[in-house]
């Protein structure tokens, strides 16, 4: 018995080392093949701050691995999915135009379900071991879709709100108090129209806060009594809309436009997915020094954004090398710097070797940045199927 | 030039430019009928149409499209007519004429953003009022932009299209002998308005019809301006269709394809309707013609014309000023009429990054403009040849097909074209990018050059042949030599059209080709107005440079030819 247990342990240990050794061999193969490849990285190009960061990463990957990275600046991830889909339609199953794409949520689910992804690859990437899969479960489940190593975590997102502390004393920290705030300050509150994902997230946050029972939201929408579950949401929005910016007769396209309106003083509260957005915008002069960040008391929706490789990439190895570098402590610490971008890390900083941990400890604290404590609880995204159903119901009510 | 070669020009031109449209339409119609093998949809069915009609907001979006598209196009035509009747020909008009080229080179999106910042409740106009009067301290909750009825969209579209229609009208007006006709009318006691409407407008409209139809088609299917200035709940049909094509639910691409086809049907239907409307319109004019009234007073017309020009001037000058200010702003909040601080940082930062896209924009634009010019001159020269020979089949009549890309909504064929190119294995190459730009550069090249080229007095060429004994030398040295001005202008126009292409560059290039325009559009999806302004100005500066050269080069060329200097 004892012997066999020992034997089992030994085999297990051997298998583990063999597994690691295999992954190391595979990684060596990958870096060898990657050298000289050109990786077309399709990523949203609407922010200079992010474009500069990607440019820096491209240079570092060129130095370190000899991989040439080209940033394709897209306006919408849907365009990239369309490109891959067009290629599949035309039978271009090798050497497609997209090698790596910045993605999450619904688009990931769509690509995964339609076999448009390369397959599992993060298990071969050395830096994946530092990802905080324990305390950041959204690195394993993207809008409840199992990631299954098919996309590499890149950054963390959480729904936060921004306000001008020079104008407002206490910001409203729940959906109910937001309604009161709108009553006292008519025209100064708005949210982007779904299906903009900013708008959809606002709707989901509202529903999570108002729902009596959240369980149905974490299961496929078909299993739920949609009308009953969403009734409090529509009741709330019916009250909010007449009090909103332009009396709810027109909406913004997303968080970028709302940031402009906040700067213009048209609205008093804006929203963002990046908890450090305000700090970075203050640093670049886009927003005034008095802007601050807050979250709702019940917690707010958080998720992870990733990079994925399409099924027909001709430079998949180069793409893996880039994905691995983007997860490295060096790249993640730079990304988390509010003077550079301010996108929160996916890594478990406590687990990192001392010198890598020092990189994070040396980061400046942004003016409008909330501590982990203040950021509060992260609400999980509802099941993916709710997105389409909520967007459609919203459009039927307010955009028909 | 050798006639045998010339015969091939119109055919080649048509073949090269019909292919993308036909391939593209087929590639859109198949998914519209349910055929999309990559998504396991292989049954032909009308289900996508049913899904489209069931999609929330489609009916409303369709109504909005018709109202804003037709409304803005008709408004643009009416204002064009008012300005012409009120001021043409006159000295101030000649000044206006010179301003048209730079106005035409203003990119659509940049103009819409500028107007938005001008008229929004926190915009420049209200900031100036606040600075002077101290009111309002916070921006009022007014619906001056992106209103749900589409008024702001109609305004922006009309403002963008009036200069184009004026420009096209000015190319045709010299042939109509306006001054002489007005004298004639006047000598018989008819007022300016009556002479214009009865004698000049019908032949002018005849020549403006195609550009006007292009304006209608554009206004019905425009996406970028509608996103910035249009209603949001729901948006116009073109925006809704684009959204369906980008939806994470990939199956929505099938109703999306149906929607793109619906947009094409709506465009064709609208053009047919406008064509049919000409008959009662004509009858009405004839009745007025014979009613004996002379309409000698038309004072309010001048006022209306003056007002239109003033609104246009404020809009264009204002949006340009705003872009310039934002590009050098550091921080700028309501209610400051000027930025709180200035900085050249956004220029210096951007100029580093813009080098590669700039080079690609220049090379693609110049190449497509030159190719289009050669094809169009070939086709026009073939016309001259046909005039002197008795040919049974006149391939020239097929040239109207060239305008097809201007009349078919881009979203109705670009998706299909992309798939065809990938299937042929030629996507993502630079020459295909040039080709896709040519599809749009060519019609504008033809529109710009055909007037002056056809007006060329052949007797110069005959004299040259008799003196030199060489048709080739006569063509190169005399005909082309005398046509430098329109040719330079045409090249500048073609270049400007190529620079402006966004969707073709994106779709055909698979994202691999970054031009100044693709960079500008992707940055415009962000929040930083300062960088957006820098890119918009660069995007605007390139065509402007082209038009400037088009004025300077002929002037230099004709410095020793006094008779050619003032034309």
From TrEMBL, chain A:
InterPro entries according to UniProt: SBP, YnjB
Keyword Signal: yes
Keyword line: Signal
Signal peptide span: 1-23
Keyword rRNA-binding: no
Any Pfam family: SBP_bac_8
Identification of the protein by name: ABC transporter substrate-binding protein
Source organism per UniProt: Saccharospirillum salsuginis
Lineage: Bacteria, Pseudomonadati, Pseudomonadota, Gammaproteobacteria, Oceanospirillales
Automatic annotation (TrEMBL), chain B:
Subcellular location, record wording: Cell membrane
Key word Membrane present: yes
Transmembrane annotation, as ranges: 12-36, 61-88, 109-129, 149-173, 210-230, 250-277, 303-329, 358-380, 400-424, 430-449, 483-503, 533-556
A GO cellular component annotation in the UniProt record: plasma membrane
Gene Ontology annotations of biological process type: transmembrane transport
ABC transmembrane type-1 domain: residues covered: 62-273
Keyword list, A-Z: Cell membrane, Membrane, Transmembrane, Transmembrane helix, Transport
Membrane topology per record: Multi-pass membrane protein
Broad class of where this protein is predominantly found: membrane
InterPro entries from the UniProt entry: MetI-like, MetI-like_sf
Coiled-coil zones: none
UniProt protein name: ABC transporter permease
Native source organism of the sequence: Saccharospirillum salsuginis
């Amino acid at each position: 018995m004892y012997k066999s247990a020992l034997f089992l342990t030994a085999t297990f240990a051997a298998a583990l080392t063999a597994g690691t050794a295999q992954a190391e061999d595979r990684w060596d193969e990958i870096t060898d093949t990657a050298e000289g490849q050109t990786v077309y990285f399709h990523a949203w190009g609407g922010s200079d701050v992010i474009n500069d960061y990607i440019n820096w990463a491209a240079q570092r990957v060129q130095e370190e691995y000899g991989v040439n990275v080209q940033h394709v600046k897209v306006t919408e991830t849907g365009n990239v999915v369309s490109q891959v889909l067009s290629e599949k339609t035309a039978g271009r199953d090798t050497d497609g135009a997209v090698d790596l794409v910045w993605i999450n949520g619904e688009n990931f689910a769509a690509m995964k379900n339609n076999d448009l992804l390369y397959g599992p690859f993060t298990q071969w990437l050395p830096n994946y071991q530092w990802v905080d899969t324990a305390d950041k479960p959204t690195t394993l489940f993207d809008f409840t879709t199992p990631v299954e190593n098919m996309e590499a975590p890149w950054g963390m997102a959480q729904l936060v709100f921004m306000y001008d502390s020079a104008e407002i004393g206490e910001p409203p920290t729940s959906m109910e108090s937001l309604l009161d705030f709108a009553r006292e300050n008519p025209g100064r509150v708005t949210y982007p129209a779904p299906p903009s994902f900013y708008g959809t997230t606002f709707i989901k946050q509202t529903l999570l806060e108002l729902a009596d029972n959240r369980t149905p939201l974490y299961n496929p929408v078909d299993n739920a009594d949609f009308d009953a579950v969403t009734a409090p949401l529509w009741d709330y929005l019916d009250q909010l809309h007449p009090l909103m910016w332009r009396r709810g007769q027109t909406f913004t396209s997303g968080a970028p436009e709302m940031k402009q309106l906040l700067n213009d003083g048209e609205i008093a509260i804006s929203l963002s997915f990046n908890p450090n957005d305000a700090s970075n915008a203050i640093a670049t002069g886009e927003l005034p020094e008095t802007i601050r960040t807050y979250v709702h008391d019940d917690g707010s929706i958080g998720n992870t954004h990733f990079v994925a490789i399409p099924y027909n990439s001709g430079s998949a190895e180069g793409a893996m090398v880039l994905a691995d570098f983007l997860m490295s402590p060096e790249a993640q610490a730079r990304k988390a710097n509010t003077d550079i971008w301010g996108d929160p890390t996916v890594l478990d900083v406590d687990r990192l070797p001392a010198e890598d941990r020092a990189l994070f400890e040396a980061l400046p604290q942004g003016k409008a940045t909330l501590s982990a404590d203040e950021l509060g609880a992260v609400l999980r995204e509802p099941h993916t199927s709710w997105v389409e159903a909520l967007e459609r119901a919203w459009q039927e009510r307010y955009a028909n | 030039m050798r006639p045998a070669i010339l015969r091939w020009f119109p055919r080649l031109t048509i073949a090269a430019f019909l292919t993308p449209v036909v391939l593209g339409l087929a590639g859109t119609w198949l998914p519209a009928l349910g055929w999309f093998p990559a998504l396991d949809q292989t049954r032909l069915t009308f289900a996508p149409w049913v899904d489209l009609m069931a999609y929330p907001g489609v009916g409303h979006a369709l109504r909005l499209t018709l109202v804003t598209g037709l409304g803005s196009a008709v408004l643009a035509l009416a204002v064009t007519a008012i300005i012409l009747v009120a001021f043409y020909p006159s000295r101030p008009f000649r000044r206006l004429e010179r301003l048209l080229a730079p106005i035409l080179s203003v990119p659509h999106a940049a103009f819409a953003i500028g107007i938005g910042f001008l008229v929004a409740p926190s915009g420049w106009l209200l900031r100036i009022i606040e600075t002077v009067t101290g009111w309002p301290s916070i921006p009022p909750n007014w619906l001056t932009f992106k209103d749900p009825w589409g008024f702001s969209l109609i305004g922006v579209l009309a403002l963008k299209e009036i200069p184009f229609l004026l420009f096209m009208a000015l190319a045709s007006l010299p042939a109509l002998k306006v001054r002489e006709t007005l004298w004639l009318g006047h000598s018989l006691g008819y007022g300016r308005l009556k002479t214009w409407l009865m004698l000049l407008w019908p032949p002018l409209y005849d020549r403006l019809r195609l550009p006007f139809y292009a304006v209608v088609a554009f206004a019905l299917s425009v996406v970028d301006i509608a996103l910035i200035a249009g209603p949001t709940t729901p948006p116009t049909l073109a925006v809704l269709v684009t959204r369906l094509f980008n939806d994470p639910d990939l199956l929505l691409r099938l109703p999306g394809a149906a929607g793109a086809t619906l947009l094409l049907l709506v465009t064709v239907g609208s053009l047919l309707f406008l064509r049919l409307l000409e008959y009662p319109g004509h009858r009405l004019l004839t009745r007025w013609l014979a009613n004996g009234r002379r309409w000698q007073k038309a004072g309010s017309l001048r006022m209306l014309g003056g007002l239109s020009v003033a609104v246009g001037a404020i809009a264009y000058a204002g949006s340009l000023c705003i872009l310039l200010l934002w590009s050098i702003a550091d921080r700028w909040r309501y209610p400051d009429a000027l930025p709180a601080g200035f900085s050249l940082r956004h220029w210096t930062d951007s100029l580093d990054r813009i080098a590669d896209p700039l080079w690609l924009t220049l090379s693609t634009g110049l190449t497509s403009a030159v190719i289009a010019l050669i094809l169009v001159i070939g086709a026009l020269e073939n016309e001259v040849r046909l005039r002197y020979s008795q040919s049974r089949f006149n391939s020239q009549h097929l040239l109207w097909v060239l305008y097809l890309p201007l009349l078919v909504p881009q979203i109705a064929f670009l998706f299909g074209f992309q798939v065809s190119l990938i299937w042929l294995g030629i996507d993502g190459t630079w020459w295909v990018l040039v080709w896709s730009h040519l599809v749009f550069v060519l019609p504008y090249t033809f529109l710009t050059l055909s007037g002056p080229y056809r007006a060329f007095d052949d007797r110069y060429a005959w004299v040259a042949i008799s003196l030199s004994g060489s048709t080739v030398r006569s063509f190169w040295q005399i005909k082309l030599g005398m046509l430098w001005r329109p040719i330079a202008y045409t090249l500048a126009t073609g270049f400007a059209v190529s620079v402006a292409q966004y969707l073709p560059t994106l779709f055909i290039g698979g994202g691999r080709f970054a031009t100044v325009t693709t960079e500008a559009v992707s940055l415009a999806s962000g929040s930083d107005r300062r960088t957006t302004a820098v890119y918009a100005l660069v995007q605007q500066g390139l065509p402007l440079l082209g038009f400037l050269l088009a004025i300077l080069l002929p002037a230099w060329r004709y410095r020793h030819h006094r008779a050619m200097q003032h034309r």
